Structures are given as C-alpha cells and as structure tokens.
Amino acid sequence: MKFRNFCLLLFFCSYSVYLFPQYSYGVTGLLHSPSAEMQQDKTVMIGGGFLNENLTPPRFNYNTYNYYLNVTIFPCLEIAYTCTLFKVTPQWGVQSQMGKFTNQDRYFSLRLRVLKEEQFFKYMPAVVLGTSDPFTESRGGEIMPSGDGGNGYFSRFYVAMTKHIPVNKEELGLHISYLYNRRNDYHLNGIAGGITYSPSMLSDLKLIVEYDSHDILIGMNYLLFHHFLVQAMMQKGKYFSCGLTYLIHLK
Predict the structure, then answer these.
(1) What is the pTM of this model?
(2) Residues 130-141: tens digit of each pLDDT
(3) Cβ-count burial of 1 within 10 angstroms (0-12 exposed, 13-18 middle, 19+ buried)?
(4) Which residues contact 232 (CB under 8 A, 6 or more apart)?
C-alpha cells in the first residue's frame, strides 16, 4: 500500500517536459538523427519502441524492440542506457530457440551541451557533442569499434546544432549534425539534419522530417496526459517504427 501511494504521489507531483526523445537510441533527438535539444535538469525518461529491421544494423535482420532509461543529470549532461532485443537466427543459435528473443544488446549513450541557444547572440544555435555505444568489450576492448565484427552495433559520435524560429504562433526547429563511426556494416556517416514543426492549434504535436545521412524519414511526437509521449515514423515512406516514452521532471 505504501509503495502504491508513493507511485501515485510521484505521478501527480512530477512535472513532465516535452521535447524530442529519440526512441531509436533512447536519447533526446529527432527520429533517427541527433539534435542539440536538451531536457530540463533532473528529467527522467523511461521508454521503448518497435524497430523495423531497416532502421537497425544488419546484425538485426528482423524486426525487433528496445527499451531504455534516460536521465539528464545536469542541464548540460544526459546519460542513457539502452537495450535492444536479439532474436535467435540460424547462424547464432540452436533450432529449438529459432525465432525467439533470448538476449539483448546493451549500450550507454552520452550527450554534452557545450553551447546554449542564443547564449552569446540572438541567432546562435545550441551545440551538443554526443556518442552512442562508444565502447565494446569484444575483441579485447575497443573504443569506436571498427569493421563489421564484434559488438558496438550502434556506435556513433556526433556534433549537432539546433535553432528554433518562431513563425507567427507556430515554431520551426532547424537541426543539423555530423555523424561519424568506423563500422562497415552500419555506415551512417556524414551530414544529417531535419525540420520540426509545432502547430499552434495542437501544441502537443511535433511533426518531423529528417535525413539521417542515408534515408529520408517522416514522423511525429504527440504528448498524452502530460506524461506519455507517443512517437511514430516512416522510413523511405514504407518502413514503420514507433515508440512510447514516459517523461518525469523530478526537480
């Protein structure tokens, strides 16, 4: 009873923030690309999603799921822990387990904001440095894993910039980033970016169009009951992925 009352108190007393959880990696961002937006200090995000196989590295040659815990420890620092489910395939397991989810890939992500939006002048963008899955213990341990062997499937390093522009009562967000990794099998390198749009009549809706350095994606975020953020996207206009995130602001 005490635990249930504590959970109810936490739910009604917490304050949710509405930005852009990038459910495909479990961090703040666009759909499949980073941005320079940050959550407020002491924000917790708990979520997960359905990932179409075209959105994931070739090791996941099937549709899968992920889940994550994300904490913004300081206003400029965000840390996430993401798990993506493995399914047994002919080259990875025994016949009795074929097609079942029996394991998971685990990795940390980190985002550091080095400049705030409009910090020194009006038109200055926010700047964030970030990484996902930066280290693997396979093959004796490796930072920024290379080639197409070992773990570190979601490895990437990036710098991202974001600028929001008010247009009457609406708001446009302009986002650009540069991605880098050394994997041959998941080579999302180069320029990525996107545009976000918030209509005045549906302030809880965010529409997103982006280019992740490889594909065009369109999607949306919609906030329900001040805490539940529903996310959906289409990759190449035909591959669907979606996610759900619960947001809490503890400060």
Answers:
(1) 0.85
(2) 999 988 776 666
(3) exposed
(4) 219, 220, 240, 241, 242, 243
